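Lab notebook page, bench 4
Experiment: in silico fold of construct C2
Operator: M.H.
Input chain length: 339 residues
Purpose: comparison with the prior construct
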Amino acid sequence: MTCTIIVGGQWGDEGKGKIVSYLCEKDSPYIIARGGVGPNAGHTVEVDGEKYGIRMVPTGFPNKKVKLAIGAGVLVDPEVLLKEVEMLEKFDVRKRLIIDYRCGIIEEKHRLMDKSNEHLSKEIGSTGTGCGPANVDRALRILKQAKDIEALKEFLGDVSEEVNDAIDAGKNVMIEGTQGTLLSLYYGTYPYVTSKDTTASTFAADVGIGPTKVDEVIVVFKSFPTRVGCGPFPTEMPLEEAEKLGIVEYGTVTGRRRRVGYFDFELAKKVCRLNGATQIALTCLDKYDNACYGITEYGELTDKAIEFIEKIEKATGVPVTIISTGPELHQTIDRRDEL
């Protein structure tokens, strides 16, 4: 039994939602706990042809046997969260969700501050969800906590206790990180970053476990990195070129057009080091090479795709164990038993 952390390896939008949902379905962990900043990160999960844009609930929700948790380090917007619980009613999320009573709460004043601050909204490209201002209030010790919100009472619990008890009992635990490493307040492309660290170490702290409890760290890379908003992007390609390749994407939270680039092998190496990566999950291989769409066996991939994967492994020193070849959960190559 293992404790696994899932981390974004670029500027977010790497397809972590698909990877987390696949692992939840395949490995059926006892609990999946969400770390990260808050509702400024969006994950898209496709189940039976239907897409779900998720900002608060852990993306392992399709597996009804799994407990869902939001760690104390995560900011919660009650309005966003309760809408998601209602939207995911057929997945019995209400019965399975645990919100740590120490989670910080985003209020309307935080959203207004986020949107009205010209530096944040225009220069930095904030999502406007109130996370930055809420984290300021948290540092000032004036932020409300989940335990103060009546509408959240039915979900409250101690996520650290839940997760540590599960690990001690030898059960599978999964920690879902949000955003991407290169958006880290400490290690990202500052100042064009989010309002806290977004590496595996912080995700462990967000849900209340120590580093010795972590067995695996899976860093998720997209075959072509994308970025929403401003900030450095060393391998960015012109939008016209991205359109020719059929790569036109929009952010789950903001709806803004994503900038597109070529895979950055040197940055991937740095990201794997920062997170202590033990595995790599590679998404959107079908867009890197259309001939790979829907393939579920590694040996059936094209030479072009295999060369690309091997180049990533050589550059990072980390095995590529999970490969996504399409949006559906079954469109996945899983090499964990082979390597």
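Observations: Residues 3-334 form a domain with the Adenylosuccinate Synthetase; Chain A, domain 1 fold (CATH 3.40.440.10). The chain has a mean pLDDT of 93.
Next step: discuss at group meeting.
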